[in-house]
Amino acid sequence: MTTFRFRPYVSIIGICLFIFTIFINNVFELTTDSGTEIILSTFSPLLLMFTLLWGLMGVIELITLIIKTSRLKTDFKSGLIISEDYQKGSNSLKLCYLINVCYLVLISFQFDYVLSNWDKLNV
After folding, report:
1. Dihedrals φ, ψ of 4, to 5°?
2. What is the pTM of this model?
3. Closest CA to 20 of 41, 54, 56, 48
4. Angle 1-6-73 (CA atoms, 0-180°, nearest 5)?
5. Closest CA to 108 of 55, 63, 54
6. Residue 44: C-alpha distances to residues 2, 14, 34, 61, 75 (Å)
7. Is 113 exposed, middle or buried, given 0-12, 13-18 or 19+ CB atoms closer than 10 A?
């Protein structure tokens, strides 16, 4: 019997990176010390770019979720798993889809922010 346990670790790490990036950007805008501004002016664009690149991992995770869902459906149709296991796997994958899609929406908003504020970023 195949297990369909899947955890969206990449998306959860990406959401944490997104929150940390927002925190760093807010600190950069509120700081008055010139030394801190220099350090944060370096880390802010780097974190923005790293978080956007981490979004590629989120897309790979979404593709993996799609493959797992199709495998779950084919195993259920062929009779390899029972209805109860199918329901558990399906509910687990739905939660993973929710987390992953929320993360990809956040990344798209961040991508829009980077494009609209490209002159201020000093990349």
Report:
1. -120, 40
2. 0.79
3. 48
4. 55
5. 55
6. 44, 16, 15, 26, 46
7. middle
Compute the residue count for the chain.
123
Q: Are 9 and 58 in contact (CB under 8 A)?
A: no
Intra-chain end-to-end CA distance of the chain, in Å: 50
Structure tokens, 27? 């600190």
Dump strand ranges (E) for the chain: none
pLDDT digits (tens, 9 = 90+) for 20-31: 988 888 888 888
- 8 A C-beta contact, residue 24 and residue 40: yes
- Give the C-alpha separation, 24 to 101, whole Å: 24
In 3D space, the residue among 95, 112, 101, 91 whose CA is nearest the CA of residue 61 turns out to be 101
The 10s digit of each residue's pLDDT in 62-101 is: 999 999 999 989 989 998 888 888 888 888 888 889 999 9
